[in-house]
Amino acid sequence: MSYKTDATRALEIKTDQLSIINQFSSSLLQLDTLEELFEYVTTHVVNRLGFVDCVIYLADNNANTLNQVASMGIAHARDKYQAERKIIRFSEGITGAVATTGKAVIINDVTKDSRYIADERPAQSELCVPLIYKEQVLGVIDCEHPIKGYFTNAHLEILTTVAHLLSAKINQVNTVNNLQKTVEQLNNAQKLENSLLQIANLTYKANDLDTFFKALHSIINNLLRADNFFIALYDKKVDILDLVYIVEEGINTKTHQKISKEQLKDTASYYLLKTEQTLLLNKDAFQSHINNGDFKMVGRQSESWLGVPFQTSDRISGVIVVQSYDKTLHYNEHDSALLTYVSRQISMAIDRQLARQELEHKALHDELTGLANRSLLIERIKHAILRLTRAKKSTSHALLYLDFDRFKSINDSLGHEVGDHFLIKICDLIKGTVRSTDTFARLGGDEFAIFMENITHKNQVNEALNRIKNALSKPLNIDNHLLQASTSIGIAYTDNVNDKAYILLQQADAAMYEAKSTGRGQVKFFNNTMRKKLKTHADIENDLQHGIEHNEFELYFQPIFTINTSEVIGFEALVRWHHPTKGFVPPNDFIPIAETTGQIINLDLHLLDLAAQHISNWHQQGHRFLKVTVNVSSRHFASLDFVAQIHSIYNKYQLPLGSLCLEITESGLIENLELATQIIEGLSPLKVKLCLDDFGTGYSALGYLHQLPIHILKIDKSFIDHLQDSTNPLVEAILSLAQSLKLEVVAEGIETVEQLTILQSTACDYGQGFLKSKPVTAKEAILLINKPL
Question: Could you tell me which residue ranges the EAL domain spans (predicted)?
Answer without folding.
Answer: 537-789
